[in-house]
Amino acid sequence: MKNPETFPHPIGLMLFNRFEYSQQVLMSLSAQTLPVDQSKLYISIDGYSGSKAELQGKPDSTHAIEELARATFPNATIRRAEKNIGIAEVYFALEVSMLESHPDANWIGFFEEDYVPSPDYLEITSQLASAAQPIDDIAVVAATGETLDPDNRDVQGIFPIGHLWAYLVRVAHVRERRDDLEVFRQQMSGRPYWDRDKIALALVMASRGVFPIGVANDYQRLSLMFRFNRIGVTTGLSYGEYIGVEGEHMTEKSFARFKFSAPTTVPFDIATVDFSASISTLRDQYRADFAKSLAEQYVIPKIRAFTAQKSFKSLPRRRRVASLLGQAFRALF
């Protein structure tokens, strides 16, 4: 039997030109144990014209997706763009709509078509947001199992978050990061998201003291949590399924390599979560895991390439140590 209450937070759902993905996420959201409040549901369907899908010769599915969304959630706010605006602009538009329509909201949610929540997902994230409410440092909660340190995946518990899928973000953090994300948004303007200038983006964000572990939209938000001394948390077990084989950042080969977690059958128990007692440990974990990710993304590959050079191998031992330290410093700064 479904809970007669509804999910208390506004949700922004991002759909693109992938009908099967959209169908799965819409069906899953319509069958939650804590039902969606359609007056707080905002669905954005990015346009086909000018999209990467159009460039690749794929058919336009956006009209069919809009029809399905309206049939599934007839009382939601649904907008389909005629032209492709990209995920950064979609995020911005949804954020503005939710904040303007619900000025008293403490949390807002962002969901995408390539993460299919389990039936109890909204119930779990609602419980996590309520438990995190007194802890200002917790800016994001989710139940995806996508932890920042892969060693914590498929483990019961709460850990620093690694990917921003199907998550709730604290509105206070949304407001404090706004200026930085506006710079990111302006840098993105004038060209498609999939054709963004990654070097220019990295440089302009670095000039503001933001050092993401990648230049994708989600990585900017993860790095801004680090900058503002906030943390995002997720369950170690996955209460949903990432299905994004086809997309901006994934191929069938890379999808198989990542070995994303399957949905767990272990029931979630909010009684096991005590953020007041664990916040200090979570902060330390987040800093350590973030530093590890930066090293794996930037430092280690450059060091390996550097040490493979013949000129390095021919140096005396002391010179090699000094050269390694210098290369590590340059890789970071």
TrEMBL record:
Protein name: Unannotated protein
InterPro entries hit by this protein: Nucleotide-diphossugar_trans (IPR029044)
Source organism of the structure: freshwater metagenome
